[in-house]
Design a protein that fits this description.
The complex is a heterodimer of chains A (145) and B (385).
Chain A (H helix, E strand, L loop, with lengths): L3 H4 L9 H7 L4 E5 L5 E2 L14 E5 L3 E8 L27 E6 L3 E6 L13 E8 L5 E7 L1
Antiparallel strand pairs in A: 1-2, 1-3, 4-5, 4-7, 5-6, 7-8
Chain B lengths: L3 E8 L10 H16 L8 E5 L11 H8 L7 E4 L5 H14 L5 E9 L5 H9 L14 H16 L3 H15 L13 H6 L2 E3 L2 E2 L8 E10 H7 L4 E10 L14 H14 L8 E3 L5 H10 L8 H6 L16 H4 L4 H17 L12 E8 L4 E8 L2
Parallel strand pairs in B: 2-3, 2-4, 9-10
Antiparallel strand pairs in B: 1-7, 1-8, 4-7, 5-6, 8-11, 10-11
Helix pairs in contact in B: 1-2, 3-13, 6-10
The chains are: A mainly beta (145), B alpha/beta (385).
């Protein structure tokens, strides 16, 4: 799978297997073989010891919600196009997003499709899972546990 | 360390400037700067141009358009970029030019021409100022990043949407008194609170504007400054700090570490503390950003920013007046020009030329300018004597 099925724009990176693993149902981090520092988002290099020998490790992607929002005015890429039928309109209801903290300071960003924004609270326990979209892209969703 | 002073300021009209191009906006500001200082470009040794986005200017090397149009060639011009803090990065670079001895007189220009693109495209470009690989795929926008800071601040300190709106009311009030501001009208608290949501909990009036505009400053070494100007304003302290690219990787979501680091450096260099500051411009790209800035700059305790605006302590006559030029919120936020514009406002205040917005006997002023969602922060402290 091409990495840009996850990232939208960028396709050339040393960590492009992240998208394949995501499609296979796993959220992966990298771990520095030399100093043990763990990275999510995965990094090909370790800024802690300047090493580049990393191994891949699946995350148990559960943790507390650090923060969230719901973006009503989306960037162009996500904006709903004008409907084709004259005089019709569609109600655009955006999806909240949030960041959970997994393990020791590993933040995972994801969509929160199943929750009303008013019911989302900082600190609530959530889990992150890969999610395949109908157009072939792959992303991450958060839901309460 | 060599002393560096501001000897000339020139501020163009901020707004939707469909009448002017990038280079023409700069010409207005530079001309005003020449008029203010009496310095001609012949006397200027080198130039620094702050312009943030190649996308906005429809081509790389926007700074060359600028130095060409004002006829500055063949002398040096150095382009600087630090997202929304580009203007302050340019000022710092100008200071370095003089402090290093490379130049005696430097022209610092900040400019952005943002409204030629549709708003949705501008929103997309700004959104990608976060991490384009790991955050943008979740539809993040600039308001979205600060909305996440707002939700974290509200959860931790009980900051309210009404307190955020009060920042907007203040800045619109002062914008109405600033002839260079994009929005020159006051708003009510109710209007701010009931405006539509841009990114929960931030509403329309919590957000700064998309703006065209330019601003220019002439800096000079101590000796030159004294010969050019009767009342140069001295740059007494400079600070710069940085933080992680992604919000989730930050130590705190309720504070900008980049600002705290920059503030410590600038206060130390100037030999002053937060209570010595008479007037400040803080980076209010969103209302929550101004509240967080109060705390990070030491104007109040952590978590007390909402109460500081509620008590109107950041109005003229309050404990520490902040953004009494209208701020990014009402004066407008042409990315490259903002930091230069902030320094111009402080210069006017310290010269005693701020008209209805004047803070009495202001002697020490501070500018605070943040790049992106807090990836970089610049602070400058200015003194009259």
């Amino acid at each position: 799978m091409e990495f840009k099925n996850f990232s939208l724009f960028i396709n050339q990176t040393k960590v492009n297997r992240f998208a394949d693993d995501l499609a296979g149902g796993k959220i992966m981090s990298t771990l520095c073989k030399k100093c043990g520092k763990q990275y999510y988002p995965p990094a090909a290099d370790c800024s802690s010891c300047m090493g580049s020998e990393m191994e891949w490790k699946e995350l148990k992607a559960e943790g507390k919600l650090l923060t969230f929002t719901k973006i009503h005015v989306p960037p162009e890429h996500f904006a709903v196009r004008q409907p084709l039928m004259p005089f019709s309109s569609i109600q655009f209801e955006p999806c909240p997003i949030g960041i959970i903290e997994v393990g020791k300071e590993l933040p995972i960003m994801g969509w929160i499709p199943k929750m009303d924004i008013k019911k989302i609270k900082v600190g609530m326990k959530m889990k992150a899972s890969p999610f395949a979209l109908p157009d072939g892209k792959i992303t991450i969703v958060l839901e309460p546990v | 360390m060599k002393k560096v002073g501001i000897v000339g300021i020139g501020h163009g009209k901020f707004g939707v400037r469909s009448d002017a191009s990038l280079r023409e906006l700069v010409f207005e500001a530079v001309k005003a700067c020449m008029d203010d200082s009496g310095v001609t470009l012949k006397e200027v040794d080198s130039m620094v141009t702050g312009v943030a986005g190649d996308e906005f200017s429809f081509g790389i090397q926007p700074s060359a358009q600028v130095h060409d149009y004002i006829g500055f060639h063949p002398k040096p011009n150095f382009r600087v970029e630090a997202a929304c803090a580009t203007g302050s990065a340019a000022l710092r670079t100008g200071w370095m030019n003089i402090a290093s001895g490379l130049a005696d007189v430097v022209l610092v220009v900040g400019v952005e021409k943002m409204t030629e693109l549709p708003t949705s495209t501008a929103t997309e470009i700004m959104g990608r100022a976060g991490d384009a690989t790991w955050e943008y795929p979740f539809g993040t926008t600039f308001p979205g990043y600060y909305a996440m800071i707002a939700n974290a601040h509200m959860a931790e300190y009980g900051t309210t949407e009404e307190q955020l709106a009060r920042v907007a009311v203040k800045n619109h009030y002062y914008g109405s008194l600033n002839p260079y501001a994009q929005m020159q009208k006051e708003i009510t608290l109710e209007k701010a609170i009931t405006s539509f949501t841009v990114a929960y909990p931030l509403k329309l009036y919590d957000c700064s504007l998309i703006t065209d505009g330019a601003a220019a400053i002439i800096l000079a070494s101590e000796e030159k400054a004294k010969s050019i100007s009767k009342k140069p304003i001295w740059i007494a302290g400079l600070g710069c700090g940085t933080d992680a690219m992604r919000l989730g990787d930050r130590k705190s979501l309720t504070s900008l570490e980049a600002t705290r680091v920059a503030a410590r450096a600038a206060y130390k260099m100037a030999g002053v503390g937060p209570s010595d500051i008479d007037i400040a411009t803080a980076h209010d790209c969103f209302t929550i950003a101004e509240i967080v800035a109060y705390e990070d700059l030491g104007f109040c305790e952590k978590g007390e920013g909402g109460k500081l605006i509620e008590a109107k302590e950041t109005y003229v006559g309050g404990r520490i007046p902040v953004n009494v030029d209208g701020g990014l919120k009402s004066k407008g936020h042409p990315l490259g020009a903002t930091g230069v514009s902030m320094a111009i406002e402080i210069t006017k205040q310290l010269r005693g030329e701020a008209d209805q917005r004047q803070v009495k006997n202001a002697e020490i002023g501070l500018t605070h300018n943040v790049g992106g969602s807090g990836q970089v922060s610049f602070i400058h402290i200015f003194r009259r004597e």
